[in-house]
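Problem 12. The chain below contains 536 residues. Write out its predicted structure in token notation.
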Amino acid sequence: MFAIRRWLALLATIITSVLHFLTTAPGSIDDAFILLVYARHLVHGGALYYNQQDLPVDGFTSPLDLLIKSAVMRLSHADPISVTWWVSLILHVGVALFGFHLAEWLARRQRLESPLVIATVAGLVLGSAQALGDGSAFLLETPLWVLLGLAATSVVLFAPPVQPTAQVALGALLIAVLLARPEGLALSLMLLVLLVRERRWLIAGSIFTVGAAVYYFWHIHKFGYWAPNTYYAKTSASRWNELRDGLQYVADFAQSRGVMSLAWLVFAPLAVRGFLDSRMRQRFLLITLLSWAMLGVAIYSGGDCYSGGRFLALALALATVGLVVAVIHLDRRSARFAWAVLSVQLGVQMVLLVVSVISTFALSKEPVRVPLSERAFACDRAASVAVANLLTDRPGAVVAQTDFQRMKYFVDEQYVRDLSGLNDQRIAHRRVDGPVVWGKHELIEAARMRPEVMILGHHIGANARAMGHFSLAAVFRDEALHSDFFGYGVAPPIAEALIAAYVTASVPVCGGYFNFLLRRDVASALRPLGTVVTEP
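Solution.
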């Protein structure tokens, strides 16, 4: 009978996690297309570059995420978009299942009467966590980072290895944490400090030190810098800018649906006095400090330009594990309070999940779009191919874009300049004194570079109106027009530079138009090819 209940609990955890993954809308999946470009080049050519004509560049944040998805692509020969979707889903569910098994193991070790209840609640809370869902929806490294971070922390705090083979495995795990995200260096070093206190650090620490040294030597030799290019593309000349952005990021999340998990992280130290076991009190305090430290790292790095809590996912997951530890090890009165907090958090998340499921699958007038293959992005592919085809007779032609990263994925042979700097070292390392939010765009300089095509703004879907029917000056003068075509306006000096070099253009796509800017001297030659172009 118990086995049946346990399987049902595991099934509930899996279903909850899957539904949360399916119903969480990403801020953007453009960066996932960037990763797939590098994965394709790694699988087919064994090299890491964005444009083949350029030097190697690492426009991806997580080498381990890239390696895993590249390996699955190579072994399965499946659609790359399908691969990244399924890997992200499996890792997202894996976080919930890890929390389930960890809570069950801790409860059984304490000989509690209802370990299955605690395990189920822990799995459901982690699987429906807002920050984790936000990150997983981007189809990037967030669920991998959270899973490895939880695993490494749990091993060090609750089961520090004794046997040499286990210490070797822990050293390898710490290297994996390092490769999952740049912040992994900070987490791994903090965990090694805790191992030193346990006097079980020598083997694991030696393996990690050697592995980290080899990785950073290779990275600096290959790319010229210790951190990924994405880090420099989002970093200003003054760290105060990132600190302000990071604090604002946390403040915005505190006003979102994930506020319960953040509230527990803030007030968790108040539960320290209720522990009966001094060793577990120490473990609880350490995991709380680690969650605070990872929150501090997210603030220091500037948070995220997108709403949600993906960069807080590990900090909040660690806080949730700390809450489970409190439920299991606090005295009876304090444990009831911890149970209440955990139950409220679960209740709020379940209500929000039910509302999301109903609104997504029952009330939405639009069909649910699950990116399981390239077919889900047929219009993006058509737009990319249409623009690239306009330039086939112009060897060396350049397409510059601010928010249409997926073009490089669909037409890899086309030279694409990423104006955000994520895939361009020169732009990424440009000094910017003010806040860097969406990247280091410099549109005046981009106009001086004179790419044949410039795709400006984040309104990149098929538009009912052809921008080519309006002059660029008219578009910039009319707030409604530039909001419709670009999603935002630009400063007058930028508008003047663009107007001097470019005209508006449109190609028919999916019953509408894909809009972009076309260099004046090439506009007349492309008009006969079916492009809607304003008069130069």
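Discussion. The chain is about 60% helix and 5% strand. Students who got a different answer should revisit the alignment rule from Section 12.3.
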